[in-house]
Amino acid sequence: MAEGDLRWYILFANYEQGLALHGLLTDAGIKNRIAPAPRAIQGELSCGMSLLLEPDAVEAARRCIKEHHAEYYDIVPLAGQIRSRRDKYC
Amino acid sequence: MIYLDNAATTLHKPPQVMDAVVRAMTAMGNAARGAHGGALEASRTVYNTRVKLARLFGCPRPDHVIFTANSTEALNIAISGLIRPGDHVVTTDCEHNSVLRPLYRLEERGAVLDIAPADRLGRVACEDLEALLRPDTRAVVCTHASNLTGNVLDIARIGEMARRRGALFIVDASQTAGALPIDMEAMGVDVLCFTGHKGLMGPQGTGGLCVRPGVEIEPWKVGGSGVHSYDRRQPREYPTRLEAGTLNGHGIAGLSAALDFLQEVGVEAIEAKECALMDRFYQAVSAMDGVTVYGDFSQARRSAIVALNIRDYDSAAVSDELSETYGIATRPGAHCAPRMHRALGTTDRGAVRFSFSWFNTQDEVDEAIRAVGQLAEE
Fold first, then answer.
1. How close, in Å, is residue B332 to chain A by CA atoms?
2. Quick check: B164 pLDDT over 60?
3. Is A86 on the interface with B (CB under 8 A)?
4. Which domains does chain B have, with CATH numbers?
5. Contact A86 B378 (CB under 8 A)
6. Could you report the per-residue pLDDT of B205-227, keeping only the tens digit for each?
7. Residue A56's domain spans which residues?
8. Is residue A36 part of a domain?
9. Structure ipTM
10. What is the distance in angstroms between the Cα of A90 and the nearest Cα belonging to chain B?
11. Which of A34, B62, B126, B127 is the most exposed place for a label (fewest CB within 10 A)?
């Protein structure tokens, strides 16, 4: 992923919501990874954990959330700041 | 994985801690409930652990060592059991939310709270704290060392100030118990709150408070005590007064083994090793372009923590990169220390905290230095 590319974060009010959705997304085969929530997008309600998605998984994640009435705070894109030495995020 | 998040919890424990927990889970009944072998095994383990903790912290009486689940519970017990609406309390900008939130809640109920400010290096001047003390100040509540910067507060001096004004002195030793020498008597501490799973290297779910004899803390919770069962009120004797319900005996057995390890190695040796690792890391990263380190590293004694930011990167992004690319575990974000971040000017992006333990090695530190160097270059 090049610097400036968008990463999509699902934000939560607490870890319990995040871990519950992590299980749902994983069970549905939607690639996601638990990651620290960037301060820039945390907002007032969200906690320090987020789920990181590849851009092409965002719509599937939204459908999964809707289907399971999963709780979350927000889904937010953020440009990557660091040019990583690895090329996969999830 | 290179684990450098020891200020959150020490992941690597002495092997005898695990052995003790497993042994306790096969042999331990309920402490202070009955006189059969299993119950006595538990009672003996719990009492012996009180003795070890009293010795470690200079608490005059082992029965004034009270077990809790963690520092936060200990601090809640101390703060809510000693401070009443209308009382005046002094604390500092260095505090964790485990001190701040109980005090804010008391403030909402009518206590009067003054907070000594920290400067841009996260230092609190004792003179500033002393200036806030009043003739009617009920208590000073402060941390021994900041969980964000590692800066140590001059506990002995603050204790002397509090004692001179007739105020109680409650200390949060979450970051220093087991890592720095503590002597309640010499430091003028009335209540010392500690956790078992950080510097003491015991299991999570253990912690407690040491109470100076004569300090009367009203119970935060009441219930089963194993004694005085027909009384309607909680027994007044320590430790029973503050220990309603079954203790975490299995965890305390692990803590007891951890205390044996500490005794064997020595707190001074642990402090020396952790600070040498911290200093090696600090000297290298503080010289790098694009790296900002927070805290006062001119202190002769400090907690083995280095908090930093790299360029304008979000601390969460840096910590994630360290974890995913380099296999290095650190803690980003706010660290439950909102006032300290305000003082340091890091409220918006937090900071990446590297914290070192007895079980870290120089090679691990060098790997972390290399990782920070690469991130700072990009």
1. 7
2. yes
3. yes
4. 2-10+267-377 (3.90.1150.10), 15-265 (3.40.640.10)
5. no
6. 999 999 999 999 999 899 998 88
7. 10-79
8. yes
9. 0.83
10. 10
11. B127
